[in-house]
Amino acid sequence: MTRFTVNNQPVEYRMAPETPLLWALRDASNLTGAKYGCGTGDCGACTVDVDGTAVRACQVTIGEIEGAFVTTIEGLARERDHPLQLAFIDANVPQCGFCIPGIIMAASVLLKKNAAPSDAEIEAAITNICRCGVYPRLVAAIQRAGRVLSGDETINAGARPGIDPAEAARSVPALTPPN
After folding, report:
1. For FRET with 116, which of 80, 124, 155, 176 sits at 20 to 30 Å CA-CA?
2. Is 166 part of a structural domain of the chain?
3. Are the beta carbons of 93 and 134 closer than 8 angstroms?
4. C-alpha 118: how far from chain center
5. Domain carrying residue 20
6. How many domains does the chain have?
7. Cα 134 to chain center, whole Å?
8. Do 47 and 104 fall within a single domain?
9. Which helix (H) or strand (E) element contains residue 22?
10. In order along the chain (179 residues), what is the average pLDDT of each group of 10 residues?
11. What residue spans carry the region label Disordered (predicted)?
């Protein structure tokens, strides 16, 4: 059994220590914000924060992070109101949204270390791949979130899109194919 903390909750996984963190999060904990993209650590869709480091969850096993503190997109802000999330919404960064949780998690690690990153520092830290090409808006949103975290600016993003997490877990009736 492997033990570590996920989103401030102690967790004990009864899975093989060789299990990739991504699958423990998605399959055992039902934390599906980290996405399976490439499986090789290149795309960054599965990025989470492990002890203050942006980690590709498909590339680390649960045995390797025994005792660690893991934060996923679901644990970043319970009400989906982290400055990064609000800045991304306000700047209309998300397109398809598949890569966004991983990008936000990589950006949150960056902003913890440097609240005022330059364009070059953001480009060096955010190596995630976005097929929609949101990069120009992404850089501006990360810098704005840094200013919000520093108290130099506020964001009034209005109503946040999405569904209530309690609604996301409800049972959905099976679809019936058309005749």
Report:
1. 80
2. no
3. yes
4. 21
5. 2-76
6. 2
7. 16
8. no
9. helix 21-23
10. 95 96 97 96 97 98 98 92 93 91 98 97 95 91 96 76 59 57
11. 160-179
